[in-house]
Amino acid sequence: MLSKELTYLLEKFLQGDRQLMVLTGAGVSAESGIPTYRGVEGYWTKGSRNYKPEEIGTLRFFQKKPEEVWKFALYRRTICKRAQPNLGHTSIAKLENIFRDRFTLITQNVDGLHLKAGNSDHRTYQIHGDIDHIRCSLNCTRTLYEFPQEIGEKKQGEGLTGAEWELLRCPECDAICRPNVLWFDEFYNERYYRSESALKIAGKTGLLLIVGTMGTTNLPNQIFDTVRFKQGIVVDINLEDNLFSEEIRDSRTGFLLRGKSSELLPQLVDEIRKLRGWQPFEESI
């Protein structure tokens, strides 16, 4: 059950024209069986060596050992492709169906489960990239290439064949391509991660739902600060407290909902539907 205070503010929000933004992290997909990148299962073991995500998930490491990074990336891609959306994902897709052009999804997840659940490409900002595209590691071109479908599922530690390695070469300069993901030693940009567009929409956001993220990266923090500065409502849906919690707890327009997103998001969707009379917003022209 949502509190009376939150229900009241949701009703006021629905009467206006500001944006609904949903910001998601690894906690949403963890319920679909995808290990969080920072958890124990996010480590990469090579022989007796355990590489931390902050080490192997870097451009510097890729430049030294590209095959190791690709083996790690392909194994995680296999896990992601096998996974199915859970009720958290489908509830967020329902929110887009309700709000339409008042809706934006900002996700730190690269697994594609939001799109598989029904969210649209043009309203989904994958600010850490995605597993379905690759790009030149030397930036000879800014083109994104579709991931080669000839490369199938990979077990943990399984290497690439010579033919598969050739499929990962840039069509323009023949350099090895890289996963289209944001690594730990890189910065956000508009071209690949739509960072400027995300912040622009944050300035128009009246309701921000934070789901399954600890708030440890820069752009989500900027989004949160922007929404708070614009006096938007913030609802944090997580299993435990995160870097946003203290400020939300001290705010009259901030709410902490603790529990599984697959359980709490359906309740939130039902409440919004009741307040809306089950009618979606009109598409803007």
List the helices and strands and how they pair.
Layout: H1 4-15, E1 19-24, H2 26-30, E2 44-46, E3 49-51, H3 53-56, H4 59-64, H5 66-82, H6 87-99, E4 103-107, H7 113-117, E5 124-126, E6 129-136, E7 145-146, H8 162-167, E8 177-181, H9 190-193, H10 195-202, E9 205-211, H11 218-229, E10 233-238, H12 245-249, E11 254-258, H13 261-276
Parallel strand pairs: 1-4, 1-9, 4-5, 9-10, 10-11
Antiparallel strand pairs: 2-3, 6-7, 6-8
Helix pairs in contact: 1-13, 6-13, 10-11
Describe the structure.
With 285 residues, this protein is an alpha/beta fold. It has two domains: 163 residues, TPP-binding domain (Rossmann fold); 92 residues, SIR2/SIRT2 'Small Domain' (2-Layer Sandwich). The protein is 40% helix and 19% strand. It has a six-stranded parallel β-sheet with strand order 5-4-1-9-10-11, sandwiched between helices. Helix 6 packs parallel to helix 13 and helix 10 packs parallel to helix 11. The protein starts with a helix and ends in a 9-residue tail after the last helix.
